[in-house]
Amino acid sequence: MSRPAILLTNDDGIESVGFRALYDALSEFADVTAVAPKTDQSAVGRKMSSDAVVVEHELGYALEGTPADCTVAGLEALCPDVDMVVSGVNKGANIGAYVLGRSGTVSAAVEAAFFDVPAIALSMYVPPGGDVPWHEKANDPRDFREATRAASYLVKHAEPAGVFDQCDYLNVNAPMRDPSEGPADMQVTYPSEMYDMTADFENGTVRLQDRVWERMQSGDIPDPEGTDRRAVVDGYVSVSPLTAPHTTHHHEALDALAETYID
Q: Annotated binding site for a divalent metal cation: which residue ranges?
C-alpha cells in the first residue's frame, strides 16, 4: 500500500509544539509536507491574503499568511497532489458551533473542502485548573499523544471506510490525558449550541468575554451527551463529521417577498 500524501497546516504557527508532534506522528506512515503560518494566526477564521511570502522550512514551507492561505497555496502551488489536508494540533479545544467560523485550525480544513480534498481539523482540550494557566501547559510533544493517536487512526482509516462520502471534513478534539490513564475512547459528536458571549462597555472600551470557558472551569457544562464539548470534557476523543458549504432551504415566506419586490 502506498504512503498517503498529507498537507499539514495549523494556526498556532509552524514552530508550535503540537504541530511538530503531529508532523512526526504522521510521517511514520505518510509523506507529509508542512505548509503552515510562520507565526501564530489563532482565531483568524477564513481570513485570506492577496499575497503571502513563502519561506522554505525544514518541514516544508512557512507562509507569512493565514491558515486558509496555507491550504490554498499548498493545494494550488506548493504541493498540489496530496490526498488529504490535516490541520493541527491546536493547543486548546475548538468546540461548539459558534467557534467553527472563528478557528483558524478549522478554517484550514473548511478551505480544503472547497477543493474536494478530505480534511481533518485537530485540536487538544487542555483542562483548566491548578496553579498553572492552561496556556502554559502542554509544552512537550508527548502531551499531544492522544491527539496524534486519533489523527493517525483517522488519516489511515476514514477515507477507505467511506467517511468522506458523507461529510467534507472532521473536526476532532482530543483530551489531554495522563499516560497512566491509557488511551481515550472515541465518540462521534455534533457541535454544541451553547453560547455565552458577553460585552461590557466602560470608559470608552467594550470588553468582550467568552464565558463558556469560565463555566467549564467551574464544572458548569450543561451540554447534553452527543455534543463535542460534553465528550471531550468527559475524556473522550470527539469527532464531528461536518460539511463546508452553507445550506439553504426552500422558504415560502421569502419567496412571497421576492414575488412582490417590484410592486
A: 11-12, 42, 90
